[in-house]
Amino acid sequence: MESLAVLARPVADLLLQRRETLAVAESSTGGLIAAALLAVPGASAWFRGGGIVYTQAAREGLLALGAREMKGIRPASEPYAALLARTIRRRLDAGWGLAESGATGPSGNRYGDAPGHTCLAVDGPAGRTLTLETGSAAREENMWAFARAALELLAAALRDAP
Predict the structure, then answer these.
(1) What is the CATH number for 117?
(2) pLDDT value at position 1?
(3) Residue 105 lies inside a defined structural domain of this protein
(4) Model confidence, pTM
(5) Which of 58, 65, 94, 106 can pair with 48 through a Cys bridge, CB separation 3.0 to 4.6 Å?
């Protein structure tokens, strides 16, 4: 298994080059995205912070997203991930927001998604979303796959941004 710092180094280098900042809202990765980013020495120059938005209570408490903001949006969907990315970016006054919401396994989630399903979103000068299906019920492997995919999606957005 690769190290956390190796996983996040491309994003760290791009954020440093661009002199931009990042905030993260993650769910089923349980803090692995933030841990990877913070494993890179000097992360305080570009990492604004983040939170694990694993429950409705966390969503309401950390992001102030209630029923009104959630109307028509279900968790573990691309619109939900985009909402999280946009909200964490604004709340922490960051140049970029990165979010993840999914079902790591061994079973699916209550919304009908199979284990190995996640939705990712980047909010910033080059926003994007992605749904990933690993086809696996292996919880920790999915957490790593989701974190890796989130950081790759962010790196691609950073490379494509004006």
Answers:
(1) 3.90.950.20
(2) 58
(3) yes
(4) 0.97
(5) 94
Indicate whether 162 belongs to any domain.
no
Helices 56-63 & 78-91 angle (0-180, nearest 10): 30
- 145, 119, 123, 68: CA torsion to nearest 10: -140
Q: Running along the chain, 162 residues long, what does each successive block of 10 average in pLDDT?
A: 88 97 98 97 97 97 97 97 98 98 96 97 98 98 97 97 95
Q: What is the domain extent for residue 105?
A: 4-156
Angle at 74 between CA 49 and CA 60, to 5 degrees: 45
Q: How many CA atoms lie within 13 A of 47 on its CB side?
A: 22
- The size of the chain, in residues, is 162
**Closest to 155 measured CA to CA, from 22, 32, 3, 2:** 22
Number of structural domains the chain divides into: 1
Is residue 95 situated within a structural domain? yes
